[in-house]
Amino acid sequence: MLIDTHLHLIDQSALHYPWLSGVEALNRDFLYEEYALQARRAGITQALHMEVDVAPSQIQTEIDYVADLLKRNDNLIAGAIAACRPEEDGFAAYLEHQKANPFVKGFRRILHTMPDELSENPLFRDNIRRIGGSGLTFDLCVLPRQMDRAIVLVDLAPDVTFILDHCGVPDIKGNDFEAWRGKIAEIAKRSNVIAKISGVVAYADGEWVADTLKPYVHHIIDSFGWDRIVWGSDWPVCTLGGGLATWVAATHALVAGCSESEKAKLFSGNARRVWGL
């Protein structure tokens, strides 16, 4: 069993994605049918949809769009990580609304493309603390240079479970391992942070092989331990680095020497526990 905790669907006939115009390789529809065929071939049995930074006015529309896929007999999607705006006054009401929706499993506010000071906004911090005790998670998508700010946020909200996306977004192509390594070791000391092994194929150059990714993935595992890691595809962003099947195969190669119980935690067990799947 392989649970994908980081699936993006893109349907430009239903939703508006302002950022797509600047990413030509992803500026097309990536629909459920295309993903589901590839996912089943790769052994994926469930998926969590990750928000795709739609226009702010369409955040609820995106949730409803993905939830509508549950009506399909062949549905793989088990829940959604919804977009949010903790820097806005309306977040408290939005949180209460989503707490009543069992389909929503957590939230994400994109940070790695935003000004570094966003997470330092007092209202932002207060609203992140509001998530504590709700059973909902908060995904951190930050660059290594933003990691210190992320650590402060984590420490201010000890009752919130944070998910560190994409191994902390290392610059694999630039071979900047050392700067990233120390930041990961520090944030991993916080027991309320879980690392998501996802997305890294898009940060390597086109000639990457499994050994290229090995030091990064293994450092995540060593730092967080087997009980605080989950797996994600980051489809369709992973198509920039070889595609879904290639990333799944690389993952299996990277943990080939590990025990079956360890692999089971990474592939599905931890995700089921964290999000109640």
Structure report:
It contains 9 helices and 8 strands. It has 277 residues and is of the alpha/beta class. It has a single domain, classed as Alpha-Beta Barrel (TIM Barrel). Strands 1-2-3-4-5-6-7-8 form an 8-stranded parallel β-sheet. Helix 4 links the parallel strand 4 (104-108) and strand 5 (137-140). Helix 1 (32-42) packs parallel to helix 8 (244-254), helix 5 runs parallel beside helix 6 (177-187) and helix 7 (210-224) packs across helix 8. The longest helix is centred in the last third of the chain and has 16 residues, at 260-275. The model has no long low-confidence stretch (mean pLDDT 96).
Write the SSE topology.
Elements: E1 2-7, H1 32-42, E2 44-50, H2 59-67, E3 77-83, H3 91-99, E4 104-108, H4 122-130, E5 137-140, H5 147-156, E6 161-164, H6 177-187, E7 193-197, H7 210-224, E8 229-231, H8 244-254, H9 260-275
Helix pairs in contact: 1-8, 5-6, 6-7, 7-8
